[in-house]
Write a structure and sequence with these properties.
The complex is a heterodimer of chains A (111) and B (113). By secondary structure, chain A is mainly β. Helices cover 0% and strands 53% of the residues of chain A. In chain A, the strands form two sheets. In chain A, strands 2, 4, 5, 9, 10 and 11 form a six-stranded mixed β-sheet that branches. In chain A, strands 1-3-8-7-6 form a five-stranded antiparallel β-sheet, with no helix packed on it. In chain B, strands 2, 4, 5, 8, 9 and 10 form a six-stranded mixed β-sheet that branches. Classes of the chains: A mainly beta (111), B mainly beta (113).
Chain lengths: 111, 113
Amino acid sequence: GEDVEQSLFLSVREGDSSVINCTYTDSSSTYLYWYKQEPGAGLQLLTYIFSNMDMKQDQRLTVLLNKKDKHLSLRIADTQTGDSAIYFCAESPTGRRALTFGSGTRLQVQP
Amino acid sequence: GAGVSQSPSNKVTEKGKDVELRCDPISGHTALYWYRQSLGQGLEFLIYFQGNSAPDKSGLPSDRFSAERTGGSVSTLTIQRTQQEDSAVYLCASGATSGNIQYFGAGTRLSVL
């Protein structure tokens, strides 16, 4: 497809793991990113992964990259109510500095 | 400051008026980006500055939109003769010369009445 695709909504219970999935378009993208946006706020860079890596772990966050399928996922362990936000996947297409974003996944964490 | 600073945080204007939005990047960052976030279009790239190179203006939606970056630091995005469809959140990001890690400001919410 032409767009970076994400599911629109995910609901989990507090303490469970959340997995947010993304399909990107450019197999040559150097970096792939996850940003978090809370209501009324800008985009907070959560983590990014370099294209020569399969996995990156940072505290409660685990990023998995499957270059063959152009699939990126973000796992949040022990999800908390403060994790409720919109999560954007983004890619850095070949030859461009501008990022291409998905439409965002709204994560709702229920107590 | 420690992060990307944008002003104003909110701007309400009347259709047909001009507006200027300001971005102060992270100190030392040579790359600066403007994006627009609207309900219908998601996050769209507008323009990119890198040092003294000519900017990449490929994302600007019309000739009513322009941007400049003075002294390699502060940038101003100008929208002339605003239209209702210009209503959106305008986000600025900055990054270092190498790599492509972009850090965003809180944005300016523009409402055109």
